[in-house]
Amino acid sequence: MNKSATQFCPVPQEQQPTHEYQQLQDSWFFSWATLEPTDYIKKLLGVGFATSIIAAPIAAASFLPTKYPVKFFLSSIGGMTFLTALVLFQLYFGWSYVCDRLYQERISYEESGWYDGQVWLKPESMLTRDRLIVGYEVQPILDRIKKTFVFLLCIVIVGSIIWFV
């Protein structure tokens, strides 16, 4: 391939995978996954606290805190975990989408609307660059989110064991 062929990219700027990746990094919400571990945990604890404001009254309506304190506490934690998991799903799906777009050899894009979709084959140099971004930048983010899901799942399992004991 000649040099001009590797420099030309017919995909509109906003639909190029590297641009989508940069937008996620710059996004208020999606950038949470790129933060240092302590800051990431603080954000999730903030979400957990905010969701407990919703979950605790619902749990209190089901289990009076004075009469069933353990069930109230466990159902509050369960609701908080569920709502936090929804936030994590959004984070995961956003980063997973960009990961797939970066990793694929072909980029599907739209020139002006849904009816004129096109597919462009990435040049080898662009594919290599994008796959390096996946391996060194995006995959660790996805792994972090997966580990957080495992942690939340452990909370649910321990809570379930306590509930039934």
TrEMBL record:
InterPro entries: CGLD27-like. It comes from the Bacteria. Keywords: Membrane, Transmembrane, Transmembrane helix. The keyword Transmembrane applies. Pfam families: CGLD27-like. The chain crosses the membrane at residues 44-66, 72-93, 148-164. This is Ycf36 protein. The lineage of its organism: Bacteria, Bacillati, Cyanobacteriota, Cyanophyceae, Pleurocapsales.
